[in-house]
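Retro notes (design track)

What went well: tokenization of the new backbones is finally stable.
What didn't: we kept losing track of which sequence belonged to which structure.
Fix going forward: every design gets posted as structure first, then sequence, in one message. First example under the new rule, 239 residues:
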């Protein structure tokens, strides 16, 4: 079964707060690198149907993101809603303040992430991947390794989603996207250090190599080591 990240983020919103959830899904698509700067969002009619919201609600959500600087609307034959080339910078706030706001939710999110993503790496390595899936993983790995400091978090997120994509499980992919968004604001509050990025890229390479080699145990171990490093780094800035 082929699953794609845009299906995970553009899935139907839950009843109750359609406007807020529509904004959240669109932000998720942008911040996790599913829709990249310069790309056009799906057509309004299609996107409203996929999110299961009215076109009025979708337009209100797009207007809110336009005001916030994430997207712009263009008219004409090749018009539509496009992700801005320059995205707003993450809010300047301290990691400790965010951690206090998350409270016990931080350890909960880290535990959930570890379970989901180590399982995803193992499951991905257990499948026979198509040439397209293998190329997709390698491309996401290469783009992350070559990313600038400005783009690193977004492309890092996209690589992790790509690993979940090739498991063939839509539910696992959606859960991975959700937990990444829970942690993203905190990750954005932590400085990107060159040495950490180099180490992270090495670990990314080990994970993808194990998945492509069809070695579930190595893939799980490499992902576990990678996520433990992130958790240690987070707690190091919070303690």
């Amino acid at each position: 079964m082929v699953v794609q990240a845009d299906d995970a983020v553009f899935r139907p919103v839950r009843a109750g707060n359609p406007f807020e959830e529509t904004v959240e899904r669109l932000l998720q698509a942008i911040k996790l690198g599913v829709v990249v700067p310069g790309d056009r969002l799906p057509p309004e009619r299609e996107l409203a149907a996929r999110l299961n919201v009215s076109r009025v609600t979708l337009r209100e959500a797009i207007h809110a993101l336009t005001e916030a600087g994430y997207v712009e609307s263009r008219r004409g034959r090749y018009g539509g809603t496009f992700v801005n080339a320059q995205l707003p910078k993450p809010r300047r706030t301290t990691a400790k303040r965010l951690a206090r706001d998350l409270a016990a939710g931080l350890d909960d999110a880290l535990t959930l992430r570890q379970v989901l993503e180590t399982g995803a790496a193992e499951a991905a390595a257990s499948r026979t991947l198509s040439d397209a899936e293998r190329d997709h993983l390698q491309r996401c790995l290469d783009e992350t390794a070559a990313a600038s400091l400005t783009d690193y978090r977004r492309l890092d997120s996209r690589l992790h989603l790509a690993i979940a994509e090739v498991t063939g499980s839509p539910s696992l992919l959606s859960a991975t996207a959700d937990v990444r968004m829970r942690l993203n604001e905190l990750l954005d509050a932590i400085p990107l250090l060159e040495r950490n990025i180099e180490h992270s890229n090495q670990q990314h390479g080990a994970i993808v190599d194990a998945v492509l080699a069809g070695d579930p145990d190595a893939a799980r171990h490499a992902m576990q080591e990678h996520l433990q490093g992130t958790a240690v780094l987070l707690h190091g800035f919070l303690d």
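Added context from the reviewer: The longest strand covers residues 71-74.
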